[in-house]
Amino acid sequence: MKKTLSMLVMVTLLLGFATVLPTTAQTNKLLELYIGDTTAYVNTAPVKLDSPPVIQNSRTLVPVRFISEQMGAKVTWNDVKRQVTIAQGTKTIILTINSNKVLVNGKTVTIDVPAKIINSRTMVPVRFVSEQLGYKVKWDPVSYRVLVSNFDTAMPVNKNVKGTITVWHGWGLGTAEADALDKIIAEFQKAYPSVVVNQVPVDFNNLQNKFLTAAPQGQGPDIVIGPHDWIGQFAKAGLIDPIDISTLVLRANYLTTSVEGVSYAGKVYGLPESVKSDALFYNKDFVKTLPTSINDLLNAHQKYPVAGGSPLVFDAGNFYHESWLHFGMGGGVFNGTNYKDVSPIKNAGAVKAFQALVDMKNKGVMPSSLPDYGTSMSLFTNNKAAFFITGPWEYANLKKALGDKMGVMVIPGGKPFVTIESTMLSKYAKNKPAALEFMKFLTGATLGQYNFDAAAYLGKQIGHVPAAVNAYSDTAVANDPIIKVFSAQAAKGVPIPNAPEMQAVWSVVNQILPTVYQGKLSPQEAANQAYQQITEQISK
Questions:
Q1: Distances from the Cα of 445 to the Cαs of 196, 245, 467, in angstroms?
Q2: Reported pTM
């Protein structure tokens, strides 16, 4: 009895176990696995793995039991031969540990990377096993995400649309974005010769309110382009339509962070064009060895001293730019999607972040006076700071000021807010079918169906970080050092909550941050006051 039990334990350890029951193949199943992460997703539902996927020799290995049983296959282990057998219907796959030879229905097949035992778990090449069982595999190089599906994840297109559509945006006439949009429109009209696209630049500061006023009167556009945190207000006011495309298809085509950002109240209300977040710019004169942890930044005075300046600068009175620290230390804003509960704004992580801000000032990591954006920019460009936390929009200016001395990297341990530039479909649009086709074309999710990839073009021309996974198949995009850094940073960031209640968060936290920095409130008092004031505003 003891021997039988021991064998059972050994088999369980070798095959691995995920906290899911075996399932049979079903319509529209999407598996998402992240390299180095023990949380996977089955049709967006989180599932705990006991061993994370790994990359070896450019091939992804995943736990055999999870991937096989999710496809309706049975898994058995032969301890004597050190073989794992995967059986599904008439298909039998036998993999031998550390052997490149695999038996598929009795025929030998050679694979690049063999099955291996890693940390007492059997790991198998995901592409080989999945494709043998009739599933499709896609790689997301930004999020280090493997997508496995039993359906075609290609974005659906409708080439029968016609008529005129109008697009409002806040990029400004004559800007690089507006010029790039002209090119994209021209390419779109080659694919859709029966559609006319009119772009209308609107002053960004007025765009949101203008849409709120004009749309209900039927005077607004078919599509409005703007930051994703407008979505909650627009959706709540009934001014934009949810996107009639499967959420699974959307997750397979866009960065996960971006899909989450354009989702509100369980529905997707826009297609993401690009992602933006802060990252860490640095001056190579002061930074000879890159920081590897958030503590390296919190104690930058020790390793990165700057005579007559400060090691680190950023707009510390602006919650957007301070968010890398807030979320990096474990702080929060809302309790999930309960936008009436802001208790995470006063949790232990939030208090810790406030304390870290004070400590950095006191230790000389940051200036003694609260640095605003302009001051931070000036200090960094005049060689009076080693690090500057800001977004990709400053890359050209910083490069011009510092030349080859400038570098940029992911903030180690930091989790900044992420903004998703979004295309939104007006509920009052006069030509919704054509508008939706242009939204898909502009955001680059239709690669392979056209000769032009708008998302890749925007990335190469003006440095927009594409939200579409397909865009990264363009080597110029994938290898661009700026896009590479900011896409990786966005994958680690926190999408700005798009709920209308977020307006109260901005106003309160932006008032409290300076008082903490100046020592007028203790970190705990600041957290408590933020909670009270935000709660009062959103309860009105």
A1: 21, 12, 9
A2: 0.86
